[in-house]
Amino acid sequence: VQLVESGGGLVQPGGSLRLSCAASGFSFDYYNMNWYRQAPGKERELVATIGSDGRIITYADSVKGRFTISRDNPKNTVYLQMLQLKPEDTAVYYCNARVRRDYWGQGTQVTVSS
After folding, report:
1. Which of 5, 11, 52, 54 has the most Cβ atoms closer than 10 angstroms to its Cβ?
2. pLDDT of the chain along its 114 residues, tens only?
3. What is the three-class DSSP state of 111?
4. What is the pLDDT of residues 71-93, one digit of tens each?
């Protein structure tokens, strides 16, 4: 199993970013996919989950209405569209798949600052 995130960067408050996670090594369209984040000095937290067929989606309260998770099963890719970014969204964002055990990408840094 391999998960490779991309799309992070530095953005001003109110800006937007789109994260991507390219997955390989497992039957992507059989599994839920998750985005987590970890801010400095804080525990890793679940941001969003999408079901295997994209129909069931959940979000952390802190990102509801601003973030959108989606997936493209033929491309084995999951996305996180982030709008109206706030400084408190600053964190390393990780893609996660639970395929018999947890697998993680290397993470992508998102920094929201003026």
Report:
1. 5
2. 999 999 999 999 999 999 999 999 999 999 999 999 999 999 999 999 999 999 999 999 999 999 999 999 999 999 999 999 999 999 999 999 999 999 999 999 999 999
3. strand
4. 999 999 999 999 999 999 999 99
CA 17 – CA 10 distance, rounded (Å): 9
Question: Which run of H or E residues covers position 80?
Answer: strand 77-82
E-strand ranges in 7-113 read: 9-11, 17-24, 33-38, 45-50, 57-59, 67-72, 77-82, 91-99, 101-104, 108-112
Cα three-residue angle 77-81-103, rounded to 5 degrees: 45
- Which is nearest to 22 in space by CA: 8, 40, 3? 3
* Cβ pair 19, 93 in contact under 8 A: yes
Query: Residue 74: helix, strand or coil by DSSP?
Result: helix
| CA pair distance 108, 7, nearest whole angstrom | 7
As to burial, measured by CB atoms within 10 angstroms (0-12 exposed, 13-18 middle, 19+ buried), residue 47 is buried
